Amino acid sequence: MTPLYAVFGNPIAHSRSPRIHALFAAQTGVALRYEARLAPRDGLEQALAAFHAEGGCGANITVPFKFDAWRLCTRRSAAAQLAQAVNTIGWDEGGLWGDNTDGIGLVRDLARVLAAEDVHRPLHGQRLLLLGAGGAASGVLGPLITAGARAIALWNRSIDKAQALAARHSALAAQHGTDLQVVQSPPPHWADGVVNATAASLGGSGLDLDDGVLHPGCWAYDLMYAATDTAFVAQARAAGARAWDGLGMLVEQAAQSYTLWHGEAPDTAPVLATLRAELAASHHA
Ligand code: ATR
After folding, report:
1. Are residues 115 and 176 in the same domain?
2. Predicted TM-score (pTM) of this structure
3. Cβ-contact 220, 196 below 8 angstroms
């Protein structure tokens, strides 16, 4: 039987993951089925058990289930442990394992857009401002540290969540020489790069930031993506910054999941180009 994979979320109809994995499979000549599965909000555990009984080999996990998945796994990667969130699972003789490929996906896409020479430490020496402290932010903070950031200022609307996230990452930051601080308000004219991990773009509005937080000397990256510029990307460009949305990160995190399952790294560039074209076409249709 063709190996079965899926993405679980709620809602899930909008997910591009089945398309991305189908493109990877065609490119690498791997036979697989990859489906979008809707799970009830309180029913991930049952949904995964049924999926595995049906022959499911692995899955991606998206909103709002990344924390539930983390809880259910019997073995977790270091990245998943730091994030306290799992976006990739699989079954083997040891049971259910979980990893988190979101952060590595972001760092790989940043290496691409910034044309970094050192792809393993593309943020070497940079000062970063990370906006948000929810599930998305916790998935990327560890990899931003290990990608070489010199300093990271963490800001969130509710400061207690930022403090908890920073505390969980303090040992990693010390190990890598990253100055990790929680800030009460985002500092102007400070950051080399600003990463938006808040859900503000979902509401179609930018963030209420002081003048100069986004400035012509910095780059900006929104973890969200859309057929047209997200509100944050538009806000950053209006302030003179170079800015990108998170479609490239989506493809890169999928590629890393694909590598974990199939042992082969797909070429992401043509897949990203296809997705971007399809997104634009769906907007104009
Ligand atoms: P996700 O998985 O997308 O990160 P989440 O865990 O609910 O979702 O986190 C949403 C993040 O976006 C939080 O950091 C939230 O701030 P609070 O912790 O203060 O709720 C942030 N957020 C959502 N809407 C926002 C807005 N309009 N302005 C600023 N931050 C916002």
Report:
1. yes
2. 0.97
3. yes
